[in-house]
Write a structure and sequence with these properties.
Helices cover 34% and strands 4% of the residues. By secondary structure, it is mainly alpha-helical. It has a domain of 39 residues: Histone, subunit A. It has a two-stranded antiparallel ribbon with strand order 1-2. This is Aspartyl/glutamyl-tRNA(Asn/Gln) amidotransferase subunit C.
Length: 95
């Protein structure tokens, strides 16, 4: 499979990119180099390789979710630049 300038033009159109002829030729050459490199995978014998969804086994490394007491409100509000009625006061984002 080879990538032509027309293929690059099509993808550039989908991405709303305006490429000149030199850029189209450059990208076609680079994409063909990538495909040529990826074709090396066809030379590998994968008969005894089981299909996997990940290269490494996944293990959940997160800690257990346990409830802990929160900080007191007065200590939390020490970090607030401004507070009102026990809540953080921020500038309005809606008019």
């Amino acid at each position: 499979m080879t990538i032509t300038g027309k293929d690059v033009e099509h993808v550039a159109g989908l991405a709303r990119l305006d490429l000149n002829e030199a850029e189209k030729a450059q990208f076609a050459e680079q994409l063909n180099a990538i495909l040529k490199y990826a074709e090396q995978l066809n030379e590998l014998n994968t008969d005894d390789v089981l299909p996997t969804s990940h290269a490494m086994p996944l293990v959940n490394v997160m800690r257990e979710d346990t409830a802990k007491p929160s900080l007191p409100l007065d200590k939390v509000l020490l970090n607030a630049p401004d507070d009102e009625v026990g809540q953080f006061k921020v500038p309005a984002v809606l008019e």
